[in-house]
Amino acid sequence: MSKHKFVIFILLLCSVFIIAGATGCGPGAPSAQFTVNATSGNAPLSVWFTDLSAGEIESWEWDFDNDGVVDSTDQYVLHVYEVPGDYTVKLTVMGTGKSDSEVKTSYIVVSAPECKADFTAEPRECHGATKVQFTDLSTGDVTGWAWDLNGDGAVDSTTQNPAYTYSRDGLYTVTLTVTSANCSDTITKQDYISVSGCST
Fold this sequence. Notes:
With 200 residues, the protein is mostly beta strands.
């Protein structure tokens, strides 16, 4: 190859690299990528988003529920999902006059919190017509309580921590049902309250 042709080849090669860089194919072009520490769990679910993007990046735009609204412009960010559902996440990165986006469909799955019924009572052994105080120990996003305090199948109270006076001797089974918008659970404690010395 002559010296003249070699110079032309070098010039053409440089032009190719310059054009490639201008159209976003060069090594400095941004490429959006990210990962998280958790993709599923019960609400409220805290998710840490880690930017893994490549290229020369000047800004970040996170849309944590793909509604078209930028939720954060931090590179690394913690987001809390309060409402159950499947969430698509979009990250857009910008730099050197270019931008790139990564969209992960149904990437975060948030479940409704489970509720678990439980309770205690004091005193559990009564002599005479003693008032028994029940204390709700249930877990989860509980919004409703239904107590059957004497084992007859009827609801005796819908308050969270009821008090009840037993006027007859016997062993009493207690049932508590807790509910929320997303769950329900029931616990029954057989012969839980012992009453003696009451008038019949």
